[in-house]
Amino acid sequence: MRFINPFKGLRPNVKNNNNNNNSIVIPSTDHLSKDIIDEHKKNHPWSFLHVLNPNIDNSITEKENKIRAKQQFELMKKENIISKDEKESYYIYKISSKDHTQTGIIGTTLLSNYDNLHIRGHEEIYLERAQQRSDQMLNLNAQIGPIYVIYPDNNDLDKLINSHITLPPDYSFKALDECDHFLWVINDINKINEISNLFNNINRVYIADGHHRIEAMQKLSNYKKHQNSEHTGSELYNYTMIAAFPQSHARILDYNRLIKDLYGYSPNNFLKEVKKKFIVEKKETLHTPIKPRTFGMYLDKNWYSLELKKEPEQDLFHINNLDINLLHYHLLQPILGIGDPRYDKRLDFISGFHGVEAIEKKVDNGEAKIGFSLFPTQIDDVIVFADKKFTMPPKSTWFDPKPLDGLVSFDFE
Fold it and tell me: For residue 238, what are the contacts with CB-CB under 8 A and spacing of at least 6?
């Protein structure tokens, strides 16, 4: 039994053509503004945005939305814009930005590995969001984008991957996320067996991005299982597609906080309260924390650095030691009155993907009264939480870059 499996991927037909590949595949729409989505859809009729996001302005009904998405997906196959590989394959996938590169493998794995903790997650699942994802995939009978997972570093697997990426890639192009994406198709049976055996030895992965997608796949799998009176467990709907990267390749960006008001405080009185628990130092420029347990704060057109005066108590379960929780329990909650971060409307989040300049901009234009920059959550913290079956606080991690949607799809036919 293989832990990670090759499969017959559905992928764009145009190879080594930057313009055409970039016009089809897309990053997660979390990266994209409405204006960018509208512009891309207008200029690129075969973009997967027409499949995954045909109804951005809610101008059509949900039923009509599903019909359009399905028709577009089937048309892309009929017109040979995308086609299915004839051989089962692994796909080596490299993503490069100006300051980061990560290389991994796309394959499939049994969904039962999630229940058996060979696939471990760290986020809370919102059932409505998972159901929406499931309905979308059921409508298309396909998984358009992989679940992004990380695996413990393995030297033998690194050597195998590095030996192959010296060859010309099957795909090479810059996408909407401003990253360069490369893909190599591996269908040689000897290499497939070698990759499979190495993953069998690793035997566990951690979800970086895609918690709702895997929950959605489970819902879809159960639905199809109940429909199929001859269900055996070997059907394709019992699997899910993953993009697996080594732990050392994963990059987590900061996930920063914005607060809409000062809870009645004047800026001066608020600073006095903060100084009771924190060492506060005014900064001349933008401030990004360079070590854990320190924070940046932007208030009244000034940047400050914050550091707790007292070393926090060590937490056996690692929960309270997270920078996000330290900021919440020592400042946001007791001073600013912020409640449950999942529901408090006075609290907003902004990814480090946008830079700390975005904090300054939103405070200066009145969208928020105060902003905080945080040191990024560390990958070791994510693994500790996942191993203990704990969920991290909301908006704890922003893994970047992420795999594209539509580069390799997994259909269940």
Answer: 110, 111, 112, 221, 225
Q: How far apart are CA 73 and CA 55, in angstroms?
A: 15
In this predicted model, what pLDDT tens digit does every residue of 338-385 receive, in sequence order?
999 999 999 999 998 888 999 999 999 999 999 999 999 999 999 999
SS (H, E, C) the chain: CCCCECECCEEECCCCCHHHHHHHCECCHHHCCHHHHHHHHHHCCCCCHHHHCCCCCCCCCHHHHHHHHHHHHHHHHHCCCEEECCCCEEEEEEEECCCCEEEEEEEEEECHHHHCCCEECCCCCCHHHHHHHHHHHHHHCEECCCEEEEECCCHHHHHHHHHHCCCCCCEEEECCCCCEEEEEEECCHHHHHHHHHHHHHHCCEEEEECHHHHHHHHHHHHHHHHHCCCCCCCCHHHEEEEEEEEHHHCCEECEEEEECCCCCCCHHHHHHHHCCCEEEEEECCCCCCCCCCEEEEEECCEEEEEEECCCCCCCCCCCCCCHHHHHHHHHHCCCCCCCCCCCCCCEEEEEHHHCCHHHHHHHHCCCCCEEEEECCCCHHHHHHHHHCCCCCCCCCCEECCCCCECCCEEECC
pLDDT confidence of residue 20 = 77
Sole residue written with tokens 């960018």: 36
Q: Which residue is it, tokens 């709702």?
A: 212
Report pLDDT for 57: 62
Which residue numbers in the chain have pLDDT < 50? 16-18, 316-317
Each residue's pLDDT tens digit, 296-319:
999 999 999 999 998 877 654 455
Q: Which amino acid is at 271?
A: L
Residue 16 neighbours by CB under 8 Å, 6+ apart: 169, 170, 171, 172, 173
